[in-house]
Amino acid sequence: MAEHQRIHPVNQEEQEDVEAAAALQASPTVPLVPRGTSKSDHHNHKPADDVPVVQQQYSSYPPFQRTFPVSHSKPPKRRRSCCCKCLCWTVSLLLLLILVVAIIAGVLFLVFRPKLPSYSIDSMQITQFNPTDNTTTFDVTITARNPNKNIGIYYEGGSRITVWYTSTKLCQGSLPKFYQGHRNTTVLDVALTGQTSDANGLITTLQQTATIPLNLRVNQPVRVKLGKLKLFKVKFLVRCRLDVDSLSSSNAIHIKNSSCKFRVRL
Fold first, then answer.
1. What CATH number should be reported for the domain holding residue 252?
2. In percent, how much of the chain has pLDDT > 90?
3. Contact partners, residue 75, CB within 8 Å, separation at least 6
4. Which region ranges are annotated with the description Disordered (predicted)?
5. Is the pTM above the cut of 0.85?
6. Looking at the 3D structure of the chain, how many domains does it have?
């Protein structure tokens, strides 16, 4: 008689242990990330067939890279030399001085309304002629007019007046020192003396000419008075062109035409 197969009852705790052991044997023994490799090793490679799906999905993402802000260095500042600074200060002071002078000149012009003086040659005569030493003396009458209401003119010493025929100087002299007040007209009689190598021949030649062109030049230092303020010294330059009929010692010289130009030199 065959032996009957006995079935032993298994309790519930032993059954759970058996199922857990079976689950451990069925689980994969390959790690998700192989040892000795980093996460970025498989970033640019095609996943192998034997790599689990979880590892393939994890390696498909790009590795995390930390970005740092780029700092641009400022260009070094150029140090200005002492010469450059001195030149800039000098130019600035000169411009400031010019501006101040221009403002003062503008105020003075608006207050005093300056006008240029005028000059004219009224008459000219040979008063003395000495053929022995070739000396000739001329008497010239000059009229100076000051049209300014609040400006006076001091005529200083050191003036010079000359009369020329082409390139030959006939005579020379100087104007006297005097003060010309506001809106004043002054008539000056000036004696001019000349000496040439052949005065007699020159006078004879000029007497035979119908019209004799003469040039009269005046170089006169003056000081201008604005109200009660006396300014620095300047020079009046007068140039007159004369056309006379003759140069004779017996009578006055007739002036046919005359024109004068005036300018100031500092």
1. 2.60.40
2. 28
3. none
4. 1-20, 25-48
5. no
6. 1
